[in-house]
Design goal:
Elements (H helix, E strand, L loop, with lengths): L2 H5 E5 L1 H11 L1 H16 L11 E4 L4 E8 L3 E9 L13 E7 L5 E6 L1 H19 L6 E5 L5 H12 L3 E5 L3 H11 L5 E4 L3 H4 L5 E4 L6 E5 L9 E4 L8 E3 L1 H6 L1 E4 L2 H7 L12 E2 H5 L14 E4 L4 H14 L7 E4 L10 H14 L1
Parallel strand pairs: 1-6, 7-8, 7-10, 8-9, 10-12, 11-13, 12-16, 14-15, 14-16
Antiparallel strand pairs: 1-17, 2-3, 3-4, 4-5, 5-6
Protein name: Ornithine cyclodeaminase
GO molecular function, one term: ornithine cyclodeaminase activity
Pfam families: OCD_Mu_crystall (PF02423)
């Protein structure tokens, strides 16, 4: 490969990400990412794992999420600023990089605001596939913001959900979500209260944005036999479920060292029992054992390996050169010892032009 080839790195912009999704279809994208996620969860022990590196402020958090499988390295930059909504800005934005461990050279740059929505939904679907009661057809979606439609479509595609009951403290968010899901093949029901939303639902997903300890679900709202995806709590001081719900649940997590700091189980003692999701998938630990009485809780905070899976999927999708631009991102002189000379020769080229 020539030096010029090494200098050029595929970049997936927001526009190209949208075009890719529209050509393939949102549900197909989620289903394919879920497959990549399952592959990586099944080889979970091979990965470097560390809690994300977070910089907290009064208004939000900025995080770096790195991991490697020993062959490739990936990281995501992501923020979480709930106050942005009132200024007409996204609560979450993100971008990511996939690189070769062998050379350290980047292999892919990508927007990850949209890609994170796809992978978060695919992760919820993966957990639900293993933990929900058999034959579940109805989900309650509490919090109808930017993630809600992706969550509903993921559970429809991967888990066979046919009905979604929506609630948000902002009725405009519920209207938006219902409008976007029209024609999806799901029965969509707009609800005035969270109690109404969870009525008859075998699966409850909470995804709210406020950076605080909230009680989105109180203990008396949750009956036996349900599965909960608690995905809104993702930083210290931010939870959605009353601790008594957590006490009554069998809790499944991505990476305990991170979830005990950021998830619903930050409310619990350090020795509160949990099961890692990858252990259920490989058969090392049981998941749901009783459809009638057991409450299962996927305490999902998002982990770097999931972003790695999504970046792997995206890299494969743009390997044909479509849906990406080639960016001149790596200085790659003919003589690797002569970076200064490379700069000087560019001045000569500019003068000649």
């Amino acid at each position: 490969m020539s030096a010029s080839d090494l200098a050029l790195i595929p970049f997936v912009s927001v526009q190209n990400m949208m075009r890719l999704i529209l050509e393939i279809g949102t549900e197909t994208c989620i289903a394919e990412i879920e497959t990549y996620l399952e592959e990586d969860f099944r080889r979970w022990p091979l990965f470097d794992k560390t809690p994300r590196v977070a910089s907290h402020s009064h208004e939000g958090v900025i995080e770096l999420m790195p991991t490697s499988d020993g062959i490739e390295y990936g990281f995501k930059y992501v923020n979480g600023h709930p106050k942005n909504m009132k200024d007409g800005l996204q609560t979450v934005t993100a971008f990511g990089v996939l690189a070769s461990v062998d050379t350290g050279y980047p292999l892919l740059f990508a927007e990850m605001t949209i890609l994170t929505a796809l992978r978060t939904a695919a992760t919820s679907a993966l957990a639900t596939k293993y933990l929900a009661p058999k034959g579940a057809t109805t989900m309650a979606m509490i919090g109808n913001g930017a993630q809600a439609e992706f969550q509903a479509l993921a559970l429809k595609t991967v888990c066979g959900i046919s009905k979604v009951r929506l609630f948000d403290v902002d009725p405009k968010a519920t209207e938006k979500c219902a409008r976007n899901l029209a024609g999806s093949g799901m029965t969509v029901i707009k609800c005035a209260t969270p109690e109404e939303a969870i009525l008859g639902a075998q699966i409850i997903t909470t995804c709210t944005a406020d950076k605080k300890n909230a009680t989105v679900l109180s203990d008396n709202m949750v009956g036996a036999g349900v599965h909960i995806n608690g995905i809104g709590g993702d930083c210290p001081g931010k939870t959605e479920l009353h601790r008594d719900i957590v006490m009554r649940s069998d809790v499944f997590v991505e990476y305990p060292e991170q979830t005990r700091i950021e998830g619903e189980i930050q409310q619990m003692p350090e020795d509160f029992p949990i099961t890692e999701l990858w252990q259920v998938m490989t058969g090392e630990k049981p998941g749901r054992t009783d459809d009638a009485q057991q409450i299962t809780l996927f305490d999902g905070v998002g982990f770097a390996i999931e972003d790695f899976s999504a970046l792997r999927w995206l890299r494969d999708k743009v390997s044909n050169g479509r849906f990406c631009h080639m960016l001149d991102m790596v200085a790659d002189p003919d003589d690797p010892r002569d970076l200064f000379g490379m700069v000087q020769r560019e001045r000569e080229r500019m003068s000649a032009a």
